[in-house]
Amino acid sequence: MTELRGPVRIVGTGLIGTSIGLALGRLGVVVELVDADPDNALMAERIGAGSRLVQIEPQLVVVAVPPDHVGAVIAEQLRQTDAVITDAASVKSKPLTDASALTDDLSRYVGSHPMAGSERSGPLAGRADLFDGATWAITPHETSDPKAVDLVRRLAEAAGARTVELSVQDHDLAVARVSHLPHLMSALAAGTLVDAPNSHLELAGQGVRDVTRIAAGDPRLWTQIVSANSTALTGLLERIRDELDRMLVALGKEEAGEELASILGQGVSGAVRVPGKHGAPHIELVPVLVTIPDRPGQLARLFADAAESGANVEDLRIDHSPGRPVGEVELAVKPASVDQLVRVLTERGWSVHR
Amino acid sequence: MTELRGPVRIVGTGLIGTSIGLALGRLGVVVELVDADPDNALMAERIGAGSRLVQIEPQLVVVAVPPDHVGAVIAEQLRQTDAVITDAASVKSKPLTDASALTDDLSRYVGSHPMAGSERSGPLAGRADLFDGATWAITPHETSDPKAVDLVRRLAEAAGARTVELSVQDHDLAVARVSHLPHLMSALAAGTLVDAPNSHLELAGQGVRDVTRIAAGDPRLWTQIVSANSTALTGLLERIRDELDRMLVALGKEEAGEELASILGQGVSGAVRVPGKHGAPHIELVPVLVTIPDRPGQLARLFADAAESGANVEDLRIDHSPGRPVGEVELAVKPASVDQLVRVLTERGWSVHR
């Protein structure tokens, strides 16, 4: 089995590159930091992600530069070193295609996609535990050397992640489905709110908040991601457009029912497939709702009481009630724990409902 | 000012009707329960929502029957009583149109849309505080008597809700935007997951969970709602379909950037308009992330420590980490509270990040 001894060169010290450096630092691996912007590299060094000015023969190079440059840097590093090269791009086909155009031997390259931390950016946001418990996709291509694949697995494990291996094509279709398309749907729904009168927005509830939350992500980054994954996304978007057309035709008819019910039923079937807590398949949890006054210490009191009942809170949501200083907390617990939880909370004076 | 003395007749003792009965019961108002299904009415009576077998001359009638029957029951009650009539349908134009076809004088009818509790159903799910802090839309039409409108306001207030008044047309467009369209977008995104291989789903994160959550709602109910609001929705769906077409054309081009950035930018502008906590406009909150081991009592401990720092937790989310028994809690606090919160939590041994 291949061992990750280091040194590791990190090219691109944004959030992801810096965090990988910090994670490797936990294990005492020597890390070299490189960035086209010297300030970025300096900041990453300052927070302990590695060193800028070292002479190393890297065992591994991690390319964590913006999507449009990944392929070129992979090719450059393949030429300049004997190292295994990996990257962190969220779409895997583009780096491979771009690198292939610049160099012939790609056996030392194995694509990576560490799936963590997309909301903050820059080296100062870097964290050693960013990938703890996160999913790290590894996408060997046809000519990837098995030893190189093994080393990249070691990297992901060193960062605390759990690995999932897929082909380049499967990965891009997967993220198109579970990341990029939802982002686009969210953005389209949110776009209709731009010119909505304030009185319309007063009727907004938790549903639209959930659907539009991710639409607030950086549009420049997402434009690059979506463009890079245009092949996989085009197929999905065409399906969506066809479903939309079906919906519009149905709405224009007297008896829209069956057509709509079919599309909505598909939505239910898809929604229940989304993994819940800890990547487990959707498990049967019972929601227990508690009305909570919006004062300091209330959440703490609620959770202390819940803990005393012995119930493990598997999931929770806060629902905001416009206009009144109360919220509703939805605790999700396994069926066996419900009665106990409800009893204890009620005894403690909470307003509890199922 | 008109006073809600009662008696109040509630026709339709599902979740909404029963909850209204319970809310009025808190104030000692006499409530009569009517339902085409005698078992429903009996269950509602059993949990204290009112009485089935009373002879009353109602001051107010609340029609809380399924969407397709609302108009007919409104007309029937207008003919049979001298009461003010309101309803609870989530689309306001259809009941008005249906009732108008059956009776001439609609001055005693004022539409209502109490916006609460759509995930559970049936009389046994009824709660007296279902509408506490909830939004209750009131939609007077052209011939609605001002005294009737006033009485309906009293009803909403008695139920603990805050009222928003809009025209029938505005209301339907508003809920199309902030409720029905997001539901359809969610359903379309979720529908693409039905035939996704398990390996694809392993890459799912919080984003797709947020976007697809509401797609799990009852498809038969939503089919009725969407059909009833087809006019307002058709316009919005056509806009979405045109944006989708723009997106598809852009993705097929070499330089997709500007087109996509524009659509995504619109998404950001819309997303930040969605009201946050307590219906307030989106306020500047700072996220503080805490890694949390998935053991009983951890959440309680975290919130107790947060409370001791003096910070009021304005919002929170739990992010699930597939494969590892840890989660990440995102607490959102006002900027002034951040340093204090981070300091106290760090001192208590929590793994905290910003």
TrEMBL record, chains A, B:
This is Prephenate dehydrogenase. Pathway: Amino-acid biosynthesis; L-tyrosine biosynthesis; (4-hydroxyphenyl)pyruvate from prephenate (NAD(+) route): step 1/1. Residues 6-282 form the Prephenate/arogenate dehydrogenase domain. It is an enzyme of class 1 (oxidoreductase). PROSITE patterns: ACT, PDH_ADH. It holds the Pfam family PDH_N. Its EC number is 1.3.1.12. The lineage of its organism: Bacteria, Bacillati, Actinomycetota, Actinomycetes, Propionibacteriales. It catalyses: prephenate + NAD(+) = 3-(4-hydroxyphenyl)pyruvate + CO2 + NADH. Residues 287-354 form the ACT domain. Belongs to the prephenate/arogenate dehydrogenase family. InterPro entries: 6-PGluconate_DH-like_C_sf, ACT-like_dom_sf, ACT_dom, NAD(P)-bd_dom_sf, PDH_C, PDH_N, Preph/Arog_dehydrog, Prephen_DH. It comes from Kribbella orskensis. Keywords: Amino-acid biosynthesis, Aromatic amino acid biosynthesis, NAD, Oxidoreductase, Tyrosine biosynthesis. It comes from the Bacteria.
